Amino acid sequence: MDIFLIGIISYLMGSIPFGYILTKIFLKKDLREIGSGNIGATNALRTGNRSIGYFTLVLDILKAIIPVIYIKIFYQDFLYIASLCAFLGHVFPIWLRFKGGKGVATYVGILFAINLYFGIIFSVCWFVTFFISKFSSLSSLVASISIPIYLLISNQFNQAIFFTIMFILIFFTHRENIKRLINKEETKTKIY
Questions:
Q1: Phi-psi category of 97—alpha, beta or left, where left has phi over 0 and alpha has psi -120 to 50?
Q2: Which of 93, 100, 79 is nearest to 3 (CA)?
Q3: Regions in the chain scoring below 50 on pLDDT
């Protein structure tokens, strides 16, 4: 019963579509009809309102940190179940007919909650790649693969399996971006 409740609560927290909600409240617009149609922070930046974009980013990170930290403290054995469910909640939110974001900000929250160093490694890789390329999607992919690579190098094979699965999921959510990157049609992102 514990594992079921933990999974459901983590999923429901992860599924809160903050980008969609903030855009509706403050701009009276549907974020799904702007830019890429995605409900995440990168697309929220495309509304032209930087505050909504950054606030979406912070809230999408927090909605993973809160349940994962709680589970880490009280139900350590279910840490990866809670992490995966929070991520899946963002990508497939029940409130929006299972059409959500790409999961990167939520994944960042998971990383910082599980291990501060994982979050730092991801962030450094993301910013270095973004500084060079200006592509948010490419930065997210490079930063996501950096975690399982780090874990394999440091002989942490059990964790490497979980984070490899997470990378595969992020790769899947970015499949259209990957096609555009290959075809040199991807849009560069302005984060400031």
A1: left
A2: 79
A3: none
- Provide the 3-class DSSP secondary structure of residue 115: coil
Spatial CA neighbour of 65 closest among 105, 38, 99, 93: 105
Distance of alpha carbon 192 from alpha carbon 126, whole angstroms: 15
Tokens 């579509």 belong to 17
Which strand (E) or helix (H) includes residue 38? none
Tell me, what's the pLDDT at 18? 97
Amino acid at 192: Y
Closest by CA to 68, choosing from 9, 15, 150, is 9
Q: Would you state the pLDDT for residue 46?
A: 87
Give the CA angle between residues 106, 108, 111 to the nearest 5°. 115
Rg (CA), the chain: 16
Assess contact for 56 and 18: CB atoms under 8 A.
yes
CB of 60 within 8 A of CB of 109?
Answer: yes
Distance between start and end Cα atoms, the chain: 45
Given a contact cutoff of 8 angstroms between Cβ atoms, the answer to whether 143 and 126 are in contact is: yes
Which residues are CB-neighbours of 100 under 8 A, at least 6 positions away? 15, 17, 39, 40, 89, 90, 91, 92, 93
Listed in sequence order, the residues at least 6 apart from 78 whose beta carbon sits closer than 8 Å to its beta carbon are: 2, 3, 6, 71
